[in-house]
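The freezer alarm interrupted the setup, so I double-checked each line after restarting. Inputs confirmed:
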Amino acid sequence: MNALRESVSLAEEMVRFGARAKVAARGMGRSAPHDKTLALTYLADLLAGRERDILAANQQDVETAREAGLDTPRLNRLTLTPAIMDEMRAACLHVAQLPDPVGATESQWQRPNGLLVGRMRIPLGVIAMIYEARPNVTIDAAILCIKAGNTVILRGGSEALRSNIALATLLQEALAHAGLPADAAQLVTTTDRAAITALCKLDQYIDVIIPRGGEGLVQAVTEAAVMPVLKHFKGVCHAFIDADVDMDAALNIVFNGKVQRPGVCNALECLLVHKDVAARFLPMAGDRLGAVGVELRACPRALPLLGPEAKLQQPEDKGQEFHDLILAVCVVDSLDEALEYIARYGSNHTEVICTRDHVNALRFLREADASMVAVNASSRFNDGGQLGLGAEIGISTSKLHAYGPMGVQELTTTKFVVLGQGQVRE
Amino acid sequence: MNALRESVSLAEEMVRFGARAKVAARGMGRSAPHDKTLALTYLADLLAGRERDILAANQQDVETAREAGLDTPRLNRLTLTPAIMDEMRAACLHVAQLPDPVGATESQWQRPNGLLVGRMRIPLGVIAMIYEARPNVTIDAAILCIKAGNTVILRGGSEALRSNIALATLLQEALAHAGLPADAAQLVTTTDRAAITALCKLDQYIDVIIPRGGEGLVQAVTEAAVMPVLKHFKGVCHAFIDADVDMDAALNIVFNGKVQRPGVCNALECLLVHKDVAARFLPMAGDRLGAVGVELRACPRALPLLGPEAKLQQPEDKGQEFHDLILAVCVVDSLDEALEYIARYGSNHTEVICTRDHVNALRFLREADASMVAVNASSRFNDGGQLGLGAEIGISTSKLHAYGPMGVQELTTTKFVVLGQGQVRE
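Predicted 3D structure, all chains:
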């Protein structure tokens, strides 16, 4: 009975979060660009002025988590440093200076009856952001949502609770300072995971939910949510080395894709090499990658062309997101076979072709189904900042609404605006 | 055990549908504009040449449904006539002639490192369309999906099964004639509703699911689906008559909105009148609407200004989609109160202001949250054809991906294409 009563009251609490967010969304929707800019620049000041308090709160979080045995990668993501605080401040100022995306009618056309029809860019409304214990995401996500005129309900991993409370206080202070509704950024402070399930049901208040974290979290939110989900699944990225290719450029691209930051979603996981170039390309690639400790898992045709440390590929190595210095390697007979392989084992994230052949480049761009497709460039460019979006809240690997990095623009939508002089329908 | 075995085999059958659709999607994605045009024009020919067979199959459906006691509105929607066949043919030719939406890079910019970054418009992929027993939707939905380079899995209401089989046969014939994969349009022929639930789980094959029909169907699909849903909920549309207004134009707009076709989602359900104009406007509106039998349900301030047949409004009349010749009427003190009312009782579908006041017009356009917001024009214009989109597959009332009528363009998405000369990330 107690558990039932608690879960009812938790659900009711989430309803209140939703209702407040929806009221605040109207205020944000009609806010002027200047007020949003002011909130973000003031937030940068607050982050500087209160740095000591925030780092102290974070220190407590880190100590508690360490005692509880949190693993090192997660402890690292939980830890705020003066350098990360600087980055958060820089992000506030950067997003403040981006062009305001909402309010303007982007295109307009006239109908035969004289109606002027246009599309006006507007905020999405209320965004629920569910993420792991990474306190900097609290600021990064909130400032993008605010810039786009949305309100956000933040639910971060429980290990970061003290840090998030300290940061959310600043967010609300900055909003109020600029005359914007403080409820435009609300933090859910309960650590009960049932809060997430409750939020997933509130489609009368929440326009979109964005899970950001491990595959389990994303899957759970996707299954429970009745509102649209913008999600970011895994990145199984391939590079195809075509027969006619600039060998040095291709080597650099493969090396950069695998080695620069192997733990991220736009790192390379598989190298596909055209049979006509395999005997020249693979020995060089094996040397270069082997020298920095990349483990190569090769198909039977590739194996003899690589160094003695290369291993024979197992079936599960295909389509695997290694998140590590491991690379699958396959020889293919043709561009068609490469495209077939990518269609089967890719994850719609990032696909690269290295080629000098114009027709093959165009075919790859058109036919490889991924949120970013590149010719002669590293997979590591699939990132909002690198592509020129200014900043990103995540990379969408599903096709609706946004496919690829989501910046401020992707946190908006359009509505039809119709200007008449009394027209009615015949 | 038998039921379990059946549902397992049904789920497996749906997996096969999904897998075939996904294979066909690659063929559609690389198809040339000409092939899609050819398929659609040939389909128009087939609809003419086989009209007798289709009408005969439909006649059987209608008779069976009548014997089973289907109500008249649904029998009407089930029935095909030579006139509806003409409309379906015209739709094929019209959609064939629309500009091809896919393949081009719509915008491109250069990064400081020389990378050219662009957005290429691409098909969504595999679309599952779940709809009621309206055989013309089989053609309307399929041709829009095909034009946009998608493949579609069609699951129509079971009462229309014979008609849908006849129509789907023509769809596949037309696709094959144009050298396109016949599996680009597949009809699910099982009448077991478990097929819908099974489709809702296939996010490895299906990119988006579109339920079109009653609120129960939409709700069920939304709750079960793990992939994105493009949905069309109810339309509770308001018209606000401002203090400074062209009285005749406003009367026409209200009359058209309520009377021209009261059973549809963009019909008016509620009239909000500024207090300064209520004493002049409402008696005229009452006369004009009363003359054609519209039942008026008025707030206490509006009631004495309307004829004797007007009724006092009950709380449930607010936010009600009457789908009938019934109109709620309220007097409000200001534009702010009207916007407050719409925020509370509207359904994000269509909102109209009648005004001569420029500032109020701009505020209403910006602040009323609906997929179409109109100044001095009828709510009935919220329709893909009327707004100039060419044709529509439905009207989205949720904001992600599409908000408002969804035409061919809304059945596509964009991916990032990156053209490099060997760039890697620093």
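Quick read of the result. The two ends of chain A are 60 Å apart (CA to CA).
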